[in-house]
Amino acid sequence: MIVDKRFLPVADVFFRMFDKPGQGGGAIAAYLHGEPVLDVWAGWADKQRRWAGDTIVLSFSTGKGVASTVLHRLAERGLVSYDAPVAQYWPEFGAAGKENITVRELMSHRAGLHKIRGLVPGRYGLLDSEKVAAALAAAPPDARRLTGPGYHAVTYGNLVAEVAARVSGMPFQDLVRQEIAEPLGAEEFGAAEFWYRVPPEQRHRIARLFPKVNFLPAPWATAGAVMSRMPGVKGLAEAGMADGFDEVMRSPRAHNAVMPGWNGVFTARSLARMYGALANGGALEGDRRLLTEETVEQLLEVQTRRRDYVLGFRPNWRLGYHPAWVATRKQPLRSIGHYGFGGSGAFADPETGLSFAFVTNRLGNAYTTISDGRFPRLGGAVVTAARRS
């Protein structure tokens, strides 16, 4: 464990969140100016097992930030241009009126391809990345993309992974290792857990998620069908409520797939290390460079300030990230990161040189499994500590 004395208040808040088995378990980690200052864990990975330093957990949309960083590494080497049409690298994508949609639009949720309801047949069809990519390539874009972004809750990772694989000629999971884990020296620092397809020999380390994923009083299929016809929440149902997806998310079969929009498995340590580089001009410990300072500056630029027609508010999307929303009066407006279903999340704040990550197996709170106040509270505490240091 690591607890820099300046961050003792953050650790204290964290430990109080996991003092009973019913609260599950979790971990937090932070870097400041490229150096680790916080790495602690607590609670239970399941009913019979305490959370350990090497416990890993499904962190849902938190993985979108990792997938985005892979593509930025490729862009920095000139393999892909943000303002080029996606179809330049993925010709099939140009079907159904999508020939002019750019990589920049795709990475800021303006491709109009948020829908997963009916995208591929079969309950487990969403775990077949090739079928999903083919279906997205053939699909027409939603016309609302011209008026604002629409959060690609599930499909974003497939889109980014396909572009990355096409321009590099490598499977996406190999790219994650080559472009993220290896440059960060992750294995050396015990932070190699950047996984979408989890190796079978490592799966015993995965914490059990609870309670059930369904956050609604009605059965998932019924609620999804009803919501998909209701103005105001229609986009949310289209983007994240395919029939049976609540079961798919909890199935062990999810760890056989590479679906970077939602099935990333990480430790807080690994996420904090990646974002630690982004918070520190693209580098850690001086000589481990992930991105150039110029690229990091591009990542901080807001791509659209329009209302998101899926989420119903203005996320101010960056290139694959959103800003950190934390419980502090002065928000870190130049931050980038991504939160996940259930409450996990990670971000970088270049203004303070801080990165922070939180992962947990306890989805939400007693009222909803979507999320809760733990991450904003911890994030606010760690930003305050960094500003005082």
Automatic annotation (TrEMBL):
Coiled coil: none annotated. Keywords: Hydrolase. The lineage of its organism: Bacteria, Bacillati, Actinomycetota, Actinomycetes, Mycobacteriales. It comes from the Bacteria. InterPro entries: Beta-lactam-related, Beta-lactam/transpept-like, Beta-lactamase/esterase. Its EC number is 3.1.1.103. Pfam families: Beta-lactamase. This is Serine hydrolase domain-containing protein. Residues 22-365 form the Beta-lactamase-related domain. GO terms for molecular function: hydrolase activity.
